[in-house]
């Protein structure tokens, strides 16, 4: 008796069905009203008392095996029929196509380029691995100049001449070497600084720098251009220029915009002042022009540079710079753009 049940368990486990009809026949044979399972349960009372426990357990195993098999095969067949019917039904709506979204850094970069291209700026790019001349020396930062410490540098293989650019001003050096004034160009790109990573700073980030060189370019031109930019980009029309220092510009300034103090967030991000620093700028130092073979007695120019992450954090109220690089789709999907 017990052997018979064990044999039946084996049979059930090995069973395969390719159609619903086969499965139904199987179900009726084993689990139907007059099926084998019920017959066996009816036999139970005839089993000797000392064997009842073992027989009962075997019966339960058999029952579970049969039920499990029916459920498993039913699910398989249903899935298979779903698959074939979706292929056959040509009127069925297409699967939704999931369009990716642009990275917020790209969106903001494109917006900045768009604003400046409307007043005649072109875009220029350059290498991320730079030499000392283009990143530092030509920009009025000779060897041992203390201001080199302003931008902690990654060097390549102990060679102090080859480095990861610390700003995209290096692209402007290259542009000045290869183009005659008038020059109006933007250099967006990735830059690298050997800094500790925190919510506000990262060792890899992005900048857009701008350079304008022509005859009679004045500080007033710079200020007017910056005002135009902040109006277009943020809808804010109050800026202030604070004296600052950059080796490649003289005079130099930090640009603050008046963000306002309307909300609690405004208080937080402006530390209660209403003002926010957004970029550095200044009049191109005559030495920089000379280094690029541009005559500083004939030409003058201005330059400015900003971090894209910083601007994006302001525009989208992003609290932590690291979110840009984590590639978490829940974060990235929130940004949609047409350009
Ligand atoms: N290159 C500067 C920086 O990376 C920014 C800057 C550009 C400042 C041009 C003034 C003029 O910090």
Keywords:
339 residues; alpha+beta; BirA Bifunctional Protein, domain 2; 2 domains; 7-stranded mixed beta sheet; 3-stranded antiparallel beta sheet; 12 helices; 21% strand; elongated; binds phenylalanine; aminoacyl-trna synthetase; tRNA-bd_arm; magnesium; metal-binding; phenylalanine-tRNA ligase activity
- Computed structural class: alpha+beta
Radius of gyration, whole Å: 36 Å
Question: Order of SSEs, N→C?
Answer: HHHHHEEHEEHEEHEEHEHEHH
By CATH, the superfamily of the largest domain comes out as Bira Bifunctional Protein, Domain 2
Bound molecules: phenylalanine
How would you classify the quaternary structure? single chain
CATH architecture of the largest domain: 2-Layer Sandwich
CATH topology of the largest domain: BirA Bifunctional Protein, domain 2
Instruction: Specify the biggest β-sheet.
Output: 7 strands, mixed
β-strand number: 10
Q: List low-pLDDT spans.
A: none
Mean pLDDT: 90
Query: Strand order across the biggest sheet?
Result: 1-5-6-10-9-8-7
The domain tally reads 2
Overall outline: elongated
Specify the number of helices.
12
Textual characterization of the structure:
The protein contains twelve helices and ten strands. With 339 residues, the chain is α+β, with helices and mostly antiparallel strands. The protein folds into two domains: 2-88; 104-335, 2-Layer Sandwich (BirA Bifunctional Protein, domain 2). A hairpin with a 2-residue loop joins strand 7 (239-246) and strand 8 (249-258). The strands form two sheets. The protein has a seven-stranded mixed beta sheet with strand order 1-5-6-10-9-8-7, with helices on both faces. Helix 2 (20-31) runs antiparallel to helix 4 (49-88) and helix 5 (104-117) packs across helix 11. Helices cover 42% and strands 21% of the residues. The structure holds phenylalanine. Phenylalanine binds at residues 167, 169, 209, 246, 249, 280-282, 303-305.
């Amino acid at each position: 008796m017990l052997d018979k049940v064990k044999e039946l368990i084996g049979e059930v486990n090995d069973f395969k069905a390719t159609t619903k009809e086969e499965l139904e026949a199987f179900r009726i044979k084993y689990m139907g009203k007059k099926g084998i399972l019920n017959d066996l349960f009816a036999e139970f009372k005839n089993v000797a008392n000392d064997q009842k426990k073992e027989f009962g357990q075997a019966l339960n195993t058999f029952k579970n095996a049969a039920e499990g098999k029916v459920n498993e095969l039913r699910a398989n067949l249903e899935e298979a029929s779903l698959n074939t019917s979706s292929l056959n039904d040509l009127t069925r709506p297409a699967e939704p196509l999931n369009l990716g979204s642009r990275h917020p850094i790209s969106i903001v970069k494109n917006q900045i380029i768009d604003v400046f291209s409307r007043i005649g700026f072109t875009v220029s790019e350059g290498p991320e691995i730079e030499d000392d001349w283009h990143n530092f020396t030509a920009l009025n930062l000779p060897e041992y100049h203390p201001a080199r410490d302003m931008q902690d540098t990654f060097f390549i293989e102990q060679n102090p001449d080859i480095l990861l650019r610390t700003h995209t001003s290096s692209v402007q050096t290259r542009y000045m070497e290869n183009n005659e004034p008038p020059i109006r160009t933007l250099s967006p790109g990735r830059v690298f600084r050997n800094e500790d990573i925190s919510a506000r700073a990262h060792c890899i980030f992005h900048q857009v720098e701008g350079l304008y060189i022509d005859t009679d370019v004045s500080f007033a031109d710079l200020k007017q251009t910056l005002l135009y930019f902040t109006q277009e980009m943020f809808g804010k029309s109050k800026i202030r220029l604070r004296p600052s220092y950059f080796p490649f510009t003289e005079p130099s300034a930090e640009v603050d915009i008046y963000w306002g103090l309307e909300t609690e967030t405004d208080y937080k991000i402006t530390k209660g002042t209403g003002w926010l620093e957004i970029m550095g700028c200044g009049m191109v130092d005559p030495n920089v022009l000379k280094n690029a073979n541009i005559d500083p007695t004939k030409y003058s120019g201005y330059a400015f540079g900003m971090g894209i992450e910083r601007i994006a954090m302001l525009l989208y109220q992003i609290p932590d710079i690291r979110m840009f690089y984590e590639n978490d789709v829940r974060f990235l999907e929130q940004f949609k753009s047409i350009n």
